[in-house]
Specification:
heterodimer; A: 248 residues; mainly alpha; MetI-like fold; two-stranded antiparallel sheet; 2 strands; elongated; B: 234 residues; 12 helices
């Protein structure tokens, strides 16, 4: 347990690096690493959303490309994140932009699959009545399908965000100094620094999950909430692959 | 061996210009394939052991929670936190308690698959139609017989789907197990991350392993649930 006390001490008090020379630890230095970690993660998630949500909505609306949308996350899961980053380092290069691109690729599949599934599971009667009221295709997407698909889209976003925050830990391999730096360059930071970084990364992932979970509940349309658990149970029966995608 | 030492141990670079340019060199891959064999089997072992332990724990938890519904929320919350903690952080959080090596890596990998399998087993059991259960009860099955002869078999497609997700995810996470000192293909990737031949071979083996495990579980599912095919072809 002493090691955990030392690690927490590392977060709050600066000291000389065990390798000599540089100063490491302390709130200011830890915040620098955390800020870089957050910037990298937020940029990747934002770009992934900008690509995957419209694409998923469109594929779901037209009913085209279902095979692609469903299997995107299966394929994405099979490529280890370390292998993906190593591939980028070896073939494309290091640095913030290249790494963001790699993390975007990592983040797209769950969002895409969930956006597609989210639109497909919208009650066909709701879509038909929206059309009957004279809504155009774009209006149906924006006013009916998107709101009803939001809970699942946020489900995908949560999975991606946690995964990206976790993977940003190995970013120093690609030359971006995130919270993974004390983990990868343990000689500079020492064992306390490494454990401290692991603690902060774990905390960051859990907070990401909790915040996005709260947002997900906030954006769930009232109609879906009022019907309570029974509705989701029935959806799960109708579309078993919904559930299969959810925990990944 | 620490990751840093591994990085220093550069692969035997010959005078070949393709190799010294960090290129993708088929002849180097063929000549040096042996160095990937042991890490590959370490990777297989890590994945299979973590899956087996994770399955036993989460399957048992799901069976208990299926009868005692109040357990579902606490189990989901605890396994949810374990699932959320990045495995690379988990390795180092466990280090002061369990030390470097296979045990630490396995604990972290097991904690990651619990939620996936637990949810799928429970969903599978919950999706068994009430009429089917009634028919079973009508034939005089006890609760225990009903569970093993009706509910679990009918939940198999969902359970196996959970295992497939868990398998591919575990193969991916096991590439980070070298941080816990447990070897695996990730150690090879990390040892020379700029060398295309190395990255493609080690990464490719990991992807292939995930695909093979996924396919194997799918084939097993087809074999043990022949009725799903009969229903589909009707």
């Amino acid at each position: 347990m002493n090691q955990f006390v030392d690690a927490i001490d590392f977060i709050f008090s600066e000291r000389e690096s065990p390798a000599g020379g540089a100063r490491v630890g302390g709130l200011a230095k830890m915040w620098e690493l955390t800020w870089e970690h957050l910037q990298l993660s937020a940029a990747s998630i934002a770009i992934a959303c900008a690509i995957a949500i419209p694409l998923g909505l469109w594929l779901g609306h037209t009913g085209r490309g279902g095979f692609l949308a469903i299997n995107a996350s299966n394929v994405g899961r099979a490529v280890p994140s370390l292998a993906l980053i190593a591939f980028f380092v070896a073939y494309i290069g290091v640095g913030f932009t290249n790494l963001t691109l790699a993390l975007v690729l990592l983040a797209i599949p769950p969002i895409l699959t969930n956006a597609y599934t989210g639109v497909r599971q919208v009650d066909r009667d709701s879509v038909d009545s929206a059309r009957g009221m004279g809504m155009t295709g774009a209006q149906v997407v924006r006013r009916v399908e998107l709101p009803l698909a939001l809970p699942l889209i946020f489900g995908g976003l949560r999975i991606s965000a946690v995964n990206v925050v976790a993977t940003a830990t190995i970013a120093p391999l690609a030359g971006v100094v995130t919270l993974g730096d004390p983990i990868i360059n343990v000689n500079t930071y020492g064992d306390d620094g490494r454990l401290a970084a692991a603690l902060v990364v774990a905390l960051l992932a859990v907070v990401t999950e909790l915040v996005l979970g709260a947002v997900q509940r906030a954006v769930t349309p009232r109609g879906l909430k009022l019907e309570g658990g029974g509705r989701w149970r029935r959806l799960a029966v109708a579309m078993p692959h919904n559930r299969r995608e959810a925990p990944t | 061996m620490s990751p840093l030492l591994a990085q220093v141990e550069i692969h035997q670079r010959t005078q070949d210009s393709c190799v010294s340019d960090n290129g993708l060199c088929p002849s180097w891959i063929v000549d040096n394939f042996d160095r990937y064999v042991d890490p590959f089997f370490q990777h297989v072992l890590l994945t299979v052991v973590a899956m087996a332990i994770g399955f036993v724990i989460s399957f048992s938890l799901a069976l208990v929670a299926y009868r005692r519904r109040w357990l579902i929320n606490p189990v989901t919350q605890v396994t949810g936190v374990l699932y959320t903690i990045p495995s690379i952080a988990a390795f180092f959080l466990l280090l002061p308690i369990t030390g470097r090596g296979f045990l630490t890596a396995t604990i972290a990998l097991v904690s990651y698959v619990l939620l996936i399998i637990f949810r799928n087993v429970l969903t599978g059991l919950d999706n068994v139609p009430e009429e089917t259960k009634d028919a079973g009860r009508g034939m005089g099955l006890t609760d225990r017989q009903l569970l093993w002869r009706v509910e679990v078999p009918l939940a198999l497609p969902e359970i196996m789907a959970g295992l497939r997700i868990a398998a591919t995810t575990t193969v991916g996470l096991a590439t980070l197990a070298f941080f816990a000192g447990a070897g695996g293909l990730g150690e090879q990737i990390f040892a020379d991350i700029n060398f295309k031949s190395n990255v493609v071979t080690a990464g490719g083996l990991a992807v292939a392993l995930a695909a093979v495990l996924d396919g194997a579980i799918l084939l097993t599912q087809r074999a043990i649930t022949p009725w799903t095919r009969a229903a589909a072809s009707r």
